[in-house]
Write a structure and sequence with these properties.
- It contains eleven helices and 13 strands.
- By secondary structure, the chain is of the alpha/beta class.
- Strands 1-7-6-4-5 form a five-stranded mixed beta sheet, sandwiched between helices. It has a four-stranded mixed beta sheet with strand order 8-13-12-11, with helices on both faces.
- Helix 4 links the parallel strand 4 and strand 5.
- Bound molecules: oxa(dethia)-CoA.
- The site of oxa(dethia)-CoA (UT7) has 21 residues, from helix 2, helix 6, helix 8 and strand 12.
Length: 326
Amino acid sequence: MGVRILGVGAYVPDRVLTNFDLEKMVETSDEWIVERTGIRERRIASEDQATSDLAYEATLRVLDRTGMTPEDLDMIIVGTATPDMPFPATACLLQARLGIKGRPCFDLEAACPGFIYALEVARGLLSIDDTYRHVLVVGAETLTKITDFTDRNTCVLFGDGAGAAILTKDDSDRGILSAYLGGDGTLADLLYLPAGGSRRPASIETIQNREHFLKMKGREVFKYAVYGMQESVVRALELAGVKPEEVDWLVPHQANLRIIDATAKRIHLPMEKVYVNIDRYGNTSAASIPIALAEMEDRGLLKPGQIVVLVAFGAGFTWGAIVLRW
Ligand code: UT7
């Protein structure tokens, strides 16, 4: 018995922040941002919108698309690095909004590959026995809440959004064919949020030092990201026994168009087979892949039987790829 994605849905906040808006905020230019990243604009959550609100909207859309109700969901996993609060889990807040008291719910923090990690955990739980039949997997982020809009090195990169998928058991040949996950915690300080946890609890000093905003050594992260994304795709394809030329769609985490290009080149995949929406949303971390899948569904790009490869790399470092037959 396999596990497949029954449907996907996504939500992004209404407010658009363009590169031209950023030109007025920091020493940058539309030209630099487009050339170095491929990003033209991103969405920004409103002051009263938290991650669970975005997750809720994305969930309503996947329920609508699959014709299911919240009661059909047996478990909720939310992949996020920007939870509403350290606890309770964003998944619990989402469960309450959905009105399905009693169903298990937890967050999974694996940064940008959070959705891929969560898919693999859900696959494992669905495979155990008949306890769970439908698992809701959400990737949701409000990264702009931890972005320092005085730091041009990072503030041009990130955006907010959410995507949701419902997973179910499936005895056809459709579904997840392989997953390859990896991590390297020795490189944690290349991309991290210094304060607000037990290492550096919130204090006047942490606020004055702007330690509640994410820090990234972009150039170094870039090198590891290219390698991590490429290796993940190659290893996951090997595990699935799928040749690169059989791939119909590569759906990569949207961190940088140059990283996406390099990943596609590694398996000689033409860019027509690579889904790119970084120009409109920037880097939405764990939300980027499910947002892309939902858009692809909306546009009728995903056809049953197609081979789809999901791949991501992020803070931790963590990385991973999933090969599936749609
Ligand atoms: O989500 C997964 C994890 N994240 C990633 O995968 C992101 C990985 N890193 C990247 O995507 C790229 O490294 C960045 C887009 C962050 C930066 O691009 P880069 O080509 O690596 O630029 P750089 O950091 O080497 O900076 C080049 C120059 C520097 O100036 P100098 O020192 O050469 O004079 C920067 O100060 O560009 C400058 N710079 C900017 N200039 C205009 C940095 N940010 C900006 C900016 N506007 N926003």
